[in-house]
Amino acid sequence: MKNKTIITAEPGKQEIFITREFEAPREIVFKAFADPALLAQWMLPAEHKMRIDYMDYRTGGSYRFIMPDANGKEVGLFGFIHEVLAPERISKTFEYEGLPEKGHVALQKFLFEALPGERTKVTIHYICESVSYRDGLVMSGMEQYSTICHNNLDQLLAKGI
Amino acid sequence: MRRDVFQALADPTRREIINLIAHQTLTPNGVADSFDVSRQAISKHIKILTECGLIVINQKGRERFCYIQPDKLEEVSEWLDGFRKIWEQRFDRLDHLLHKMKSTTKTKPK
């Protein structure tokens, strides 16, 4: 039985909340988010090959990831780390490269709460500069998902069904 | 042909148009200038987006401007689904990784 992913994006607001519980102690969960080699293993499906250009996960550090977009073109995602407080929270900014206009930066906060029984609750809080930017972010999710679907479909077709 | 929001969002150029005018108010020609395809092609996409109610075109003086209709996007109750599925799949992979990490920590304490 998988734990439930709860996503809240109220109409007309600039925020997105993502909440999920994990069957592992907080230190381990935190490490999976803060260690580049580990993060690259779960952020995108293995065949998408997310690459880490640089990632200096400490207060005042910065990062840049390179990942394929819906059309298979490589897109950069970069930002600055405002705070890393192991194993409790990470605050960082992020901006996609290649948008028609530069400077659309959003804030992302990760909160790690220890639960009884060596479990952890993770809350990811996005704060966007405008409602339309937030809606665009959710929609770009739709775009990525359709690529993933198409890839899965391609794999099925390759198997000859 | 039936027009609905999902049909409108099924095309990557139309999604780019929406993203573009979500950030700035543009004339149809202004939108076309941001793409490498013909003005006619963009004008067709804008027509479909208008028919689906995702954008409206308002006359302001001598110019016509495209405006996004976020309410229409909110109406799509499943609009979060793609985003949710990405995170669900991500977290499933994370579950596997955490499971591996837990067993390594037990056998090889650092």
Structural write-up:
The complex is a heterodimer of chains A (161) and B (110). Chain A is an alpha+beta fold. Chain A has a single domain, classed as Alpha-D-Glucose-1,6-Bisphosphate, Chain A, domain 4, CATH 3.30.530.20. Chain A has helices at residues 26-34, 36-42, 131-158; strands at residues 6-8, 15-22, 51-55, 62-68, 74-85, 89-96, 106-115, 119-127. An 8-stranded antiparallel sheet of chain A has the order 1-2-8-7-6-5-4-3, covered by helices on one side. Chain A starts with 5 loop residues before the first strand and ends with a helix. With 110 residues, chain B is mainly alpha-helical. The longest helix of chain B has 27 residues, at 81-107. Chain A binds chain B through residues 2-3, 5, 7, 9, 11-12, 16, 18, 20, 22-25, 28-29, 31-32, 38, 41-45, 70-71, 99-101, 104, 130-133, 135-146, 148, and chain B through 9-10, 12, 15-16, 18-20, 22-24, 34, 68, 70-71, 73-74, 79-99, 101-102, 105.
Summarize this, please?
The complex is a heterodimer of chains A (161) and B (110). Chain A has 161 residues and is an alpha+beta fold. Chain A is built from 3 helices and 8 strands.
